[in-house]
Batch of 3 targets.
Target 1
Amino acid sequence: MPHPPDEIQDAFDGPWKEALRLFFPDAIGLLAPELFARIDWSRPIDFLDKELAQLQPEGPGGENVVDLLARVSDVSGAVGFVLIHAEVQADPDGRIPERMFRYRYRAFDLFGLPIESVLILADTHPRFRPDHFEQSGIVSRLRLDFLPVKLLDFEARWAELEASPNPFALFVMAHLKATRTRPDPERLYWKTWLVRQLYDRGYSREQVLELFWLVDWLLRLPPELKQSFRAELGRIEEERQMKYVTSIEEMGREEGLQQGLQQGAEKAALDALLEILDARFGPVGPDISKAVGRIHDLTVLRTLIRAAAVTDSLDSFARVLSAHASDTSTETPPTEP
């Protein structure tokens, strides 16, 4: 049986939202290989965030749900553009089939394009496996079949995940361990093991940083174990002569960040975060500056600093900031134009 949820673990949706965006082709390749083979991944991927908000069902749904809508191209050219609606569901909610249907017909009304519906079941209940929505009238019947992907099934395919070069496989392994461990020495072991895998799989520096950030976000540790993990991380990077994560922290120390974090000097940490954002993306504008300035949790600041170093755009950083807003009683920042 899975361990009960623990208050130290971050909200479910944040890591999944960012993982799907950062590794969308890899996610589809691992979770829906037949669909992956039908998409021309050399063409641009359009994430339709504003349009997705318009499709939001008023009825079935709830917490622990992640939705993504992407416009991609059919590899054969016969269909043209295709919409992929991917939903990640963490709880065994019996209303989810209707939610999938509502998204489907609203997306078709808005775009008139073929739609592929993928439901990623991230819960720990083996028997919860919805795969369709059906409604019957007197003489007529409506049915939607969607593709269910049960992450729990990957526990039996662990060796396959270990051998896979797909970077999303490592994220799935981190998710499985996050649902099966408490923030205790067992979780420390698996977090360290996953980080070693990061450095041994031949990923690019950017992929290592992105995946490290996601693993760190999923597998939260209590303060008494964080020091042990940081020491292990230092040894791993020294052994492999790949100072990816620690080099960012050293840069932060040079800017006064580490001193600020250790001594509780929030201003130093905030200033360093804003300097990193400015160096990577230019002036962030008053909305994000104010939202960052309202954060007083140094653990959250450390996560945001890592996000600022590895996210590919200011929009991505704004989403991470929004995901942490509820944990720090901040307002959700609007995305900068």
Target 2
Amino acid sequence: MKNQDRQFKNDIYEQISRIGKAIAAPKRIEILDLLCQGPCSVELLATRTEITVANASKHLQVLRIARLVESKKSGLFDEYRIANSNVSLFLHSYRSIADARIVEIKDIMHSFLEERDALEAIGAQELLRRVKDDEAILIDVRPEEEFLAGHIPGALSIPLGKLKTRLKELPTGREVIAYCRGPYCVMALDAVAYLKRKGWSAHRLDLGVLDFVAMGKRLESSASEARQ
């Protein structure tokens, strides 16, 4: 191989490796996952990932340099969002490979869910059938701003923190299916546990909007317009 050809390959793979370096930190993967739910300020990301604002800002700069996220001014704050929909698909594929190849993930998930008595979950196809046939009501227990950014069609927004005061909105005699940010999010688990204590038949959906889009399904937004 000529030196010029070798340099070309070296240069290309060096640039591609920027993506791998950007997601090499666990907190950056979590931040990216949160931004796939909807735009967020650095302050809110810091709160949700339980790190300092300074550390969250540093992680965001790494992601921005790799062009995985973008920012713009929103009032007094910088608002961060994923660069485009391909970033969501990339993150989902990356996570799927990890789920399939790293046995420790399955062990951690099984132990955690078993302790919570929550091994049973509803799959996407069964969910759609139950909701379509009016056998169940689907609730989105993520924060309202994430619901507005994009949610599974037919879902009712009842953030976890407001579930106690909004129980009257749930029809009696119907199963309740709760979902949140995906398989690693515990808000749906907490919602289901609370609903069961209050006498509802409730289950969690073992996927979030990231998984839903990766399946080729369409989300609804606050403007009631479907988007990929």
Target 3
Amino acid sequence: MNATLRKLVLLWLSAPSVLVAQPAPDLDARFASSNGWIGADGIYSASLPKNRTAWLFSDTWTGEVQDNRRMHPRMINNSVGITEGLAPARFYYSTNANGKAVSLFTPPDGRGWYWLWSALPSGNTLCLFAARVERTAAGGAFGFRVFGTALGEIANPQEVPTVWRVRWQNLPEAWQTNNVFWGSAALHHQGFAYVFGYLENGGKGADFRRQMLIARAPGEKLNRFSEWRFYGSGAWLASPQAAEPVCPDVATEYSVTYHSVYQKFLLVTHDSFLSPTIVARLSDHPWGPWSDKKTLFTCPEADPSRGIFCYAAKLHPSLSDDQRLVISYAANANDMATVLNDNRLYRPRFIRLPARDLFNR
């Protein structure tokens, strides 16, 4: 091999792995409601009985859409969509005595609100993680803080969400000190329920980072916190303070799934805080080691000049199969008027990627 060719090969090997996902407007259209529910972020999903899928949303706009603008808007903190087959999603939230939209789930202690995170079937119930959030004095699009996580057990997930019976309990406060939170992602594997979280480094601006943490419990015992074990020093340990980062640069919300054909675990997240770039990493085990990141997609909505940013990327097993992977993300803006006047924002956006392009790279 001559020197020029050797240099080209070395450059190719050292370059970031870039794959090309494609927008999936047919899936976007299934969430294109123009009356009642008119957009949301979060966009987690979970399998339900009778081949249905629950779509778990955080902040949600209600009202009407006219000429690409949101009219009579009202924001609530969470809602749920249900899909079955190829039909459009049906959306559910609560209403108050005056008939106004209100959040489907509210904290029993009345403090702050819930943003819906990952969920796992557990026997006949559905276990649902929710971030506990409250306002701060900062105001604007980032005038909030996450201060804890709750676990909800839905006793009747076969029913419509407006009649779900949910028992909420907060994760122990001692687990969530020092900027540690649990429930960003979750999966079942070989008899265990694995729960992923994150550790914030406390940095500012470009120095701000989150790192992945992992815990597990016997598959049907997520609600028994004494059964949880935390991964650190290469072992599963009883102390939550023993948990150590297993992967750098994850978002608050991300997904970890297992692909049985390729026998790999797949992490999907944004590249860094509010990056428009969606990336993936692979591993043989839920706890890693994780591969170098592979770039999947750059969200076209991102526009710093308009204050538009993208976030919340995650993979959805119910829409994916052996050949194709389906990922969603959200687009938002610093200025509320921008969101209200552009109905293309603050809605689930989907992309597709051939599985072989990712796992065989």
